[in-house]
Amino acid sequence: MATYQAVQLAQFGESFREAARIVDLDLRDPAPGELRVRNRYAGVNGIFDTQIARNAVDYVKIGLPTLTGVEALGVVEAVGEGVTDFAPGDAVVTTRFPGGYRQYNIAPQGHFVKVADDSPEWLALASTGVSAWMALFHVGQAKPGEVVAISAAAGGLGHLIVQLAALKGCEVVAVCGGPVKSDFARSLGAARVIDYRSESVPEVLAREYPNRLDVAIDTVSGEIFDAFLDNVAPHGRVVVGGAASDLEGRPEIVTAPRIAHKLYYKGASVRGFMNGLLAEFWPPAREDVFALYNEGKLKVCFDEERFLGLPGVFDAVERLLSGRSMGKVIVDLR
């Protein structure tokens, strides 16, 4: 019987590299209602992968061993009985765990979305592009003319939120580290870029945007979250999309008034964004993101580091966690 390789979580551990390994699996024909897809690219979610390795993602129940990875783009090789919407040769994307870090994915047809071709841009749009749209518009409810602040603005998610907010007619405040990332965020439409390596985010926001942040999307936590909260506008929304600076999840002693005091008199709110819990709302987001890309209004930027094959997954995860990446991080599985 033919076999294929996949990255499997064999145990729980502190890091993805420590907990996962590459294994050989039997390659089978698709059952009724299934597709067999040869993956060509995988999208990398370093924080999610690390938390999965630690069994720390509350809404995903892990039974060991399990395969890993969420996002992949591939080409359909075979379809099971009863499948009518897909055919061999179709390019498809999946954003369902654990469809990503594997050479082949055999899964129900409902796990896949057909895309125009097998270019990696479609992977980024169908996964991170949809996440960006959901965070900004579904959860953040951003409107034209509002001030939108974004942390990690040069990252895979951030660089797409910057563009979507600018296209909506929002005033974008981008937070990122270093002159290269700052120039990148500015080129995407950010009106104000705060380089946290050379400027104080709390001081800049207090001086230039006091109580003016209508939407603030944070994936970092710590000082940046506090600064966003301190300067949220009346009826503003602080969207929590992650906590990259707090992967350990240890309790932090904070000597400050409860956030209720900062929210109540402004009628403001703090909202959690977990895209995996919003699958029913993905189709309109995907339609809008695809249309903007086809019209040439939205561009996808990839990190300059290239990662090849399943062994490259481990390096790609660590690249993301290092904070050095800019744009979307993917692994070439061809």
UniProtKB/TrEMBL annotation:
Annotated ranges, domain Enoyl reductase (ER): 15-331
Highest taxon of source: Bacteria
GO terms for MF: oxidoreductase activity
Pfam families reported for this sequence: ADH_N, ADH_zinc_N
Keywords recorded for this protein, A-Z: Plasmid
Matching SUPFAM superfamilies: GroES-like, NAD(P)-binding Rossmann-fold domains
Protein name: Alcohol dehydrogenase
